[in-house]
Design a protein that fits this description.
Length: 268
C-alpha cells in the first residue's frame, strides 16, 4: 500500500476531470491518481498527453476503466482498485453529461432525456460512492467530492441571478434555443444527495463537498468551446486547480456545502 494519497476521478480523460489530474500532477504533494475513463484507449491517450504537459511530476497516474451507468463496470473498477491499491483517499465524482442537444435533434424523447441525464449525473455518482465506500473508510483522511454546477442553485434561479435564456412566447409547445431543465434538475438533486451522504458519514469522519467549478470551456452539452468563451466561459484549468485545492484541505471549513471556484459557498 502506497504512502502517497490515492485519488480516484471519474470521467477524467477530458474536460474538468483531465484538468484536475493535471493540477494534482503539478502539486508539490505526491499522489497516485486513478484516471477514470470509459475507454482504456482514450485513458491511455490522456495519460500520454499529461506526461507531455507535466513531465517532471513526483506523482503517478493510471487508467481505470469505469462507466458510471453500468453497475458491472463500477464493480470491476472497485475490484481492480482494491487489489492494486487497497484504499482510496479522495473520490471525485466528476463524470457527468448534458444531453439536451440530443433531445433537440430528435435523438431522445423527453423521458429518455430525463432518465439519461439523471442516470449519469445522479445515480452513477451515488452507486460509485456506495461501491467504493469500503476503500474510502480505509483512509485516515477520506474525502468525497461531487461536481455540482452553478445551474443547480434554486436561490440563484429564483432571484434572477442565473444566466437564463429569454422567456418563451405564450402557447405550447415552447420553442427554446437551449433548455437545460434536465441537467439543472439533476445537479440540484446531486446537491441533496451530497448533503445526505455527508450527514450519513459524519461519525466516520469522512469529508464531503459539492464543488461548483464555474462556467468553463469544457464542451459540455456538445457546445463549441470557442462559442461559450464569447459568453464568458473560462479555461477549464481553473476548475481543476480548485478541485485540487479541495483535495488538499483548503475548503475543510466548508464540509457539507457546495463550494464555488470563485471562493464563496454556493446558495442552495
Amino acid at each position: 500500500m502506497t504512502d502517497s494519497k490515492i485519488v480516484f476521478i471519474t470521467g477524467a480523460n477530458t474536460g474538468i476531470g483531465y484538468e484536475t489530474v493535471k493540477a494534482l500532477l503539478k502539486s508539490v504533494r505526491r499522489y497516485v491518481i486513478l484516471l477514470g475513463t470509459r475507454s482504456l484507449v482514450k485513458g491511455e491517450a490522456a495519460i500520454e498527453s499529461l506526461r507531455t504537459e507535466v513531465p517532471d511530476s513526483s506523482s503517478t497516474v493510471h487508467s481505470i476503466v469505469i462507466d458510471v451507468v453500468s453497475d458491472e463496470s463500477i464493480e470491476a473498477a472497485f475490484k481492480e482498485v482494491e487489489v492494486r491499491w487497497g484504499r482510496v483517499d479522495s473520490l471525485i465524482n466528476n463524470a457527468g453529461a448534458e444531453f439536451s442537444w440530443e433531445f433537440k435533434a430528435g435523438k431522445l424523447t423527453r423521458r429518455e432525456l430525463l432518465n439519461k441525464t439523471f442516470d449519469v449525473n445522479v445515480s452513477g455518482a451515488y452507486i460509485v460512492t456506495e461501491t467504493f465506500m469500503p476503500l474510502l473508510l480505509r483512509s485516515s483522511d477520506a474525502r468525497i467530492i461531487f461536481i455540482s454546477s452553478g445551474q443547480a442553485s434554486l436561490t440563484a434561479f429564483s432571484n434572477g441571478m442565473m444566466r437564463l435564456p429569454p422567456l418563451p412566447a405564450a402557447g405550447w409547445p415552447k420553442e427554446m434555443a437551449f433548455d437545460a431543465t434536465a441537467y439543472r434538475s439533476a445537479k440540484a438533486a446531486l446537491n441533496m444527495m451530497m448533503l445526505n451522504i455527508s450527514r450519513m458519514l459524519r461519525n466516520d469522519k469522512v469529508k464531503v463537498w459539492g464543488v461548483s467549478p464555474g462556467f468553463l470551456k469544457t464542451g459540455l452539452g456538445n457546445m463549441d468551446p470557442a462559442l461559450v468563451e464569447t459568453m464568458g466561459a473560462k479555461d477549464p484549468s481553473i476548475g481543476g486547480i480548485f478541485i485540487k485545492d479541495v483535495v488538499e484541505g483548503l475548503k475543510d471549513a466548508d464540509v457539507g456545502k457546495v463550494v464555488h471556484a470563485e471562493g464563496h459557498v454556493q446558495d442552495w
